[in-house]
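lol ok so funny story. i was supposed to be doing the assay writeup but got distracted and ended up predicting the structure for this chain instead. priorities right. anyway since i did it might as well share w the group, maybe its usefull for someone
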Amino acid sequence: MVEYGLDLWMVFYLSLRSVILNRAQSVRTILGVIASQIYFTGVQALPLISVLGLAAGTIVILQSSAQLTLVGGGEMIGNLLVAIVVRELGPALTAFVVIARSGTAVASEIGTMKVNREFDALQIMGIHPLSFIVFPRVVGGILSVLCLSLYFDLVALGGGYFITRFLREDMPLVFYLESVIQAIAFEDVWLFFVKNTFSGAMIFVVCCYQGMLVQQSPHEVPQMTTRAVLNSMICVVAFNLMVTTLFYLNQLLRLGIL
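and the output, tada:
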């Protein structure tokens, strides 16, 4: 597992290095590939993210408001929503959607390019495959995951509330907004960027790496695509779990409980 992780970071380092040193392709060309990746990964995933965000936000708001009202803790709804939606559900569900849509597409696309010897053709033209293929997809993936996760949070917290209003009309909008805004702290912003940046990087580095492992047989493409999905999910879940554990351990230390 350690060797596998070192290989992944080596791919990321070599792709970044090749962009800086290799001048066969222009910056405009690389930006065009990044824009295409953002459009496919980010823009085209908005409908699915909207549905998931509305569903998750509505369920969490309904359940939390109902349970907190019973115990007289209605003012804590903002803290609960931030802890569930912003810290956990947003990064996790967004990463899973990106893996299912874009991760599989990237792994199969690069695997097919390897079978068709397009990597060799790029090298003959003096273009480094890592700078033209891997780097733009990783950068576009990171930016897309960040934007999609932010969009998920806004839809879940905003759209979920308005749907809840049709079912229950006992929560004033001003009270809800104040509760959520006061619950958001600097640590939540830090967690948002750390989790989503790492998720975007690992998803596309893993998928590009698995796609490049394809040799000459088309039968290897679906196999490597499946491995890309599994390895991406393992990396994302393990990192999110580690960051969440460290975050709450630090909170307990600050409160003097540990």
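The mean pLDDT is 83. The chain is about 85% helix and 0% strand.
back to the writeup now i swear
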